[in-house]
Amino acid sequence: MWEMVDIDGRELAENFYKSMFSRNGEGVGYHLRSARALRDATRKMRRKKGMTLERWVNFVHYGA
């Protein structure tokens, strides 16, 4: 829906898939794992120095 900085896309995808396929997600439904993985990846981005609200707020999980 909103634009994103190119370097953020790569970082978000790497962190998302690391979280999505980690052993912590075993036994959890796919829809819940994907929501948690996006949350984890977004949190990791938010901790970076200089990360503004506009750069991470557009990452939203829809669906189940």
Q: In total, how many beta strands?
A: 0
Biggest beta sheet attributes? none
Terminal Cα separation, in Å?
19 Å
Number of domains: 1
Quickly describe the structure.
The chain is mainly alpha-helical. The chain has three helices and no strands. The protein has one domain (6-56).
Question: What does this entry look like structurally?
Answer:
With 64 residues, the protein is mostly helical. The protein has three helices and no strands. It has one domain. The two termini are 19 Å apart.
Please describe the topology of this protein.
Layout: H1 6-20, H2 30-46, H3 53-56
Helix pairs in contact: 1-2
List the main descriptive attributes of the protein structure presented here.
globular; 64 residues; 3 helices; mainly alpha
